[in-house]
Write a structure and sequence with these properties.
The longest helix has 25 residues. This protein has 1 helix and 3 strands. Strands 1-2-3 form a 3-stranded antiparallel beta sheet, covered by helices on one side. It has one domain. The protein is about 35% helix and about 40% strand. It is of the alpha+beta class.
Amino acid sequence: MIGLRTGSSTPAGGDLMWAATAPDGSGRDRLVLGVVLHQQAGTNPQQGLQAAFDNSRALIEGVRQWLAQTEPATR
């Protein structure tokens, strides 16, 4: 992770914006940006924020796996 910004409220749920790096198939680091919004709306802010963290973690891992399988671009 490079950085993140959190937010949460009962009506809006948990929100998380983040930036991370992950290596591609050639080992070159790529910048990955993500936003997870409206997690567990209607629950308390702690539950919404935890859901935003959990879903962001799953999203980052999915991107890392995809990048690892991606062949480097040829020009």
